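Lab notes, practical 5.
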Amino acid sequence: MEDTIKIDNRGDFGLWAIEIAKQIVSDQGFELAKAARDGTEDDLRAAGNALGQAITKALMEVYDGLLEGISED
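Output from the prediction step:
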């Protein structure tokens, strides 16, 4: 999520969304599954929150990118 990409159309956005979703599931999904299998309720809650935070961060990044170059007038 640290590389800058240019999204010019719906197809570009779709590809970005797929790649980000794969990355988030890869990074956070394993931790959530591990917590569900071996962890406590608090571990599961923390892993679920981390997954939610990763999704929120990705959405905010694309939103911020949409606003770049738009004047506030």
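Observations recorded by the TA: The mean pLDDT is 85. The CA atoms of residues 47 and 53 lie 10 Å apart.
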